[in-house]
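We were asked to recover a plausible sequence for a given structure. The inputs and outputs are reproduced exactly as logged, with field labels preserved.

PROBLEM: sequence recovery
POSITIONS: 119
GIVEN STRUCTURE:
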């Protein structure tokens, strides 16, 4: 299940960088999450001709440097994050590109939690 969610998120987010020859993905891992994403990204790379450069960093780098990078030209295309509320001003609204009702049905409990926590 966890792999499916990560793959789905990765494919949705990264497919909007269709014109990019290389997608920079900054990832921290507690176990082998970045390794698994790297393995799964090979399928996407084969089907699109793009490449995914996964940079595995410590969680401390994500916490202390990502927001500054997002405010500059050094931002990655995709990042694994936990600070959903603190970084929400940098999010891309994917609604025009996806079937929003499908995702609302599948992730309704997550959306309810986020709306309650962050308004």
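RECOVERED SEQUENCE:
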């Amino acid at each position: 299940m966890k792999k499916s969610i990560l793959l789905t998120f990765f494919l949705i987010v990264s497919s909007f960088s269709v014109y990019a020859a290389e997608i920079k993905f900054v990832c921290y891992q507690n176990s082998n999450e970045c390794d698994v994403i790297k393995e799964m990204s090979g399928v996407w790379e084969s089907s699109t001709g793009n490449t995914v450069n996964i940079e595995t960093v410590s969680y401390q780098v994500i916490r202390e440097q990502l927001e500054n990078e997002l405010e500059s030209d050094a931002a990655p295309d995709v990042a694994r994050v936990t600070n959903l509320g603190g970084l929400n001003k940098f999010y891309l609204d994917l609604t025009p590109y996806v079937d929003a009702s499908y995702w609302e049905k599948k992730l309704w409990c997550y959306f309810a939690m986020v709306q309650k926590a962050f308004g």
